[in-house]
Inverse folding.
């Protein structure tokens, strides 16, 4: 085990995979000489050379499209979208191409590409450096989508994504980069795609979440337990697609009270699908209506501090929603 | 080099290093594609298939290009009118018919995609989609892999002139130019993007002019002349293999058929215009060239045509009788199984 930040875990996963397999390479804006705007590929240029930490022209559809071409040839490209907000020009390449290549060719061709997408607010990024575009891609068969919350999961899921035979969007929360530290297993460590993780076990209420809010939920759960003996189960989805239905249903059934939390806005978000799943399978086992605590349905997060604070989730907001549900 | 035009038959096949047999084979593939295409239109009109999209009038450039590339080595990213191209790089009439009838053994997609959406890993034909020009960055990505892995192949990608307005065209060309990648971009400039004519699609004289902005040569060529196209593609391939980077080719031709079986082209162009271009049909011109060279005569041509018609009939029967996919196959291959 080594203690490191979420960002360092992402960098370590790529570095180890690039050491292991020379077909793995990173391409994107500023990923070469500079080592990435967040430093995720720091030192790669010196270590692996300009082709395997490839600075591309500033054009997201080409970053995705070129990576898709290389993946179809048999390479294992990791395409970095500098900010998830900027990946929309690549959406056609991701949804109409990468996601459909295996299906449309009847399994003749495949596209093992990883699209890394730094996302999320709380970094004074304003409307276009804060977005959570998961729901744009969620529900597109052919894509896998992961969104780790801890350094260990960040490493394990990125290695799994690189080795996966199908396209994976890897959402990495920018606020977690430096803020979240944790123990990370050394060497080859994978976390299976499609498996949620119970980050805290409990019997009174279930919180289902992913990304940064996992930490809010865990902190809130500790406080609620100490202060009011409310014992919360916190399920970290980790993979958004395919959803770990079994884990979701098991966690919901265990307490009969479910709160879904995500930073992406509420309408049409991942939480809607999770709620539908629970309603389909477990409606009569529930002791309270399913609740959602999500981002507001506004176009994006404003930059002014009071506006951003108002939008963002935090431990207090999650704690309040958890308490209300527990007392229902 | 930008804007350079290679005129009709200023060079013979022998001067290009093509044997007499190859010269006749080029004609055979052009004719085969034409006959397949005509049959496709008929089958749709007869209600036997739901859709056909035609490449009539574009065979010359497609076959010229195919002969300049290396089968089994180069990677091909054709667009939906490239029947003559895919036949010339190894697909069979039966395989094209299986796709037209959307049957289980369609090698491109197992009956999932519309006809003309090629893909065949065995032949290095990369799977394509309908949103135009998305294949251009893919061609660049495969060329990037060639450069990274130090392999001596090129990628060859085609598209229409309307498609040369798409972002993926410009992003792809720029990427390939910056990194000097071994890719050949060939525009099959057939004068129409469905109904919209060339002058309402682009303001430059030639699609080849667009290469200038990306720092590599653009060549305009008579797309009705398979030998002229062979020459420029061959040169582009050699340039690419020397590490000098990409080439953009503007192969000028005319789409003699409507856009697809869902299109009435006389709503936006006249019969006279189409007839005028029919006279310049690359197939007819090349046939005359072979007659002039003494490689073909009326009898040989008739024999060849009859042989191809027989193959087309066989392929049609074969595909018509071939099984459809199982309904539940619709659920397969979303992810690796």
């Amino acid at each position: 085990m080594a203690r490191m930040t979420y960002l360092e875990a992402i960098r370590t996963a790529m570095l180890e995979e690039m050491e292991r397999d020379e077909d793995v390479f990173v391409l994107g804006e500023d990923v070469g000489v500079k080592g990435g705007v967040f430093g995720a590929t720091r030192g790669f240029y010196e270590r692996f050379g300009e082709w395997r930490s490839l600075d591309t022209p500033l054009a997201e559809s080409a970053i995705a499209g070129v990576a898709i071409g290389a993946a179809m040839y048999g390479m294992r490209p990791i395409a970095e979208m500098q900010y998830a907000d900027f990946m929309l020009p690549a959406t056609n390449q991701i949804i109409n191409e990468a996601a459909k290549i295996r299906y449309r060719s009847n399994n003749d061709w495949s596209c093992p590409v990883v699209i890394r997408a730094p996302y999320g607010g709380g970094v004074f990024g304003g409307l276009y450096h804060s977005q959570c575009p998961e729901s744009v891609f969620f529900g597109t068969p052919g894509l896998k989508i992961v969104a780790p919350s801890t350094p260990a999961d960040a490493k394990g899921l990125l290695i799994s994504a690189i080795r996966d035979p199908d396209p994976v969007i890897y959402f990495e929360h920018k606020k977690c980069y430096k803020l979240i530290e944790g123990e990370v297993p050394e060497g080859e460590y994978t976390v299976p795609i499609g498996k949620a993780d119970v980050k805290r076990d409990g019997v009174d209420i279930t919180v289902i979440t992913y990304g940064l809010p996992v930490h809010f939920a865990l902190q809130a759960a500790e406080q609620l337990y100490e202060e009011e003996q409310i014992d919360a189960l916190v399920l970290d989805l980790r993979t958004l697609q395919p959803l770990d239905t079994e884990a979701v249903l098991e966690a919901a059934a265990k307490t009969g009270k479910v709160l879904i939390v995500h930073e992406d806005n509420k309408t049409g978000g991942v939480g809607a699908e999770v709620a539908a799943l629970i309603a389909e399978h477990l409606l009569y086992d529930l002791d309270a209506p399913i609740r959602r605590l999500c981002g507001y349905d506004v176009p994006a997060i404003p930059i002014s501090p009071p506006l951003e604070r108002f939008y963002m989730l935090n431990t207090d907001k999650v704690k309040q929603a958890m308490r209300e549900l527990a007392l229902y | 080099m930008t804007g350079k035009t290679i005129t009709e038959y200023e060079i013979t096949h022998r001067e290009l290093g093509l044997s007499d047999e190859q010269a006749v084979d080029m004609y055979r593939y052009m004719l085969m594609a034409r006959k397949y295409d005509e049959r496709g239109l008929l089958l749709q009109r007869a209600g036997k298939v739901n859709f056909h999209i035609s490449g009539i009038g574009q065979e010359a450039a497609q076959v010229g290009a195919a002969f300049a590339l290396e089968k089994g080595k180069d990677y091909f990213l054709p667009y939906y009118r490239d029947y003559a191209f895919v036949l010339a790089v190894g697909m069979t009439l039966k395989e094209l018919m299986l796709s037209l009838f959307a049957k289980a053994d369609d090698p491109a997609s197992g009956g999932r995609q519309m006809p003309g959406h090629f893909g065949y890993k065995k032949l290095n034909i990369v799977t394509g989609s309908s949103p135009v020009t998305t294949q251009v960055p893919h061609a660049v990505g495969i060329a990037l892999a060639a450069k990274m892995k130090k392999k001596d192949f090129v990628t060859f990608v085609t598209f229409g002139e309307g498609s040369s307005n798409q972002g993926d065209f410009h992003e792809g060309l720029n990427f390939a130019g910056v990194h000097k990648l071994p890719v050949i971009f060939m525009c099959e400039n057939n004068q129409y993007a469905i109904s919209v004519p060339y002058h309402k699609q682009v303001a430059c004289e030639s699609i080849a002019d667009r290469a200038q902005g990306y720092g590599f040569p653009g060549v305009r060529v008579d797309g009705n002349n398979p030998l002229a196209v062979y020459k420029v593609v061959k040169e582009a391939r050699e340039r690419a293999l020397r590490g000098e980077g990409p080439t953009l080719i503007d192969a000028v031709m005319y789409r003699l058929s409507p856009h697809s079986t869902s299109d009435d082209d006389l709503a936006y162009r006249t019969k006279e215009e189409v007839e005028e271009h029919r006279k310049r049909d690359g197939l007819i011109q090349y046939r005359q060239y072979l007659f002039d060279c003494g490689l073909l005569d009326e009898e040989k041509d008739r024999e060849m045509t009859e042989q191809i018609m027989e193959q087309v009939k066989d392929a049609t029967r074969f595909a018509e009788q071939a099984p459809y996919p199982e309904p539940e196959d619709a659920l397969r291959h979303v992810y690796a199984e």
Summary: Confidence is low (pLDDT under 50) at residues 1-7 of chain B. The longest strand of chain B covers residues 183-189. Residues 68 and 235 of chain B are 9 Å apart (CA to CA). The interface with chain A takes residues 75, 106-110, 112-113, 117, 119-121, 126-127, 129, 131, 134, 136-148, 155, 167-168, 171-172, 174-175, 178, 332-337 of chain B (CB under 8 Å).
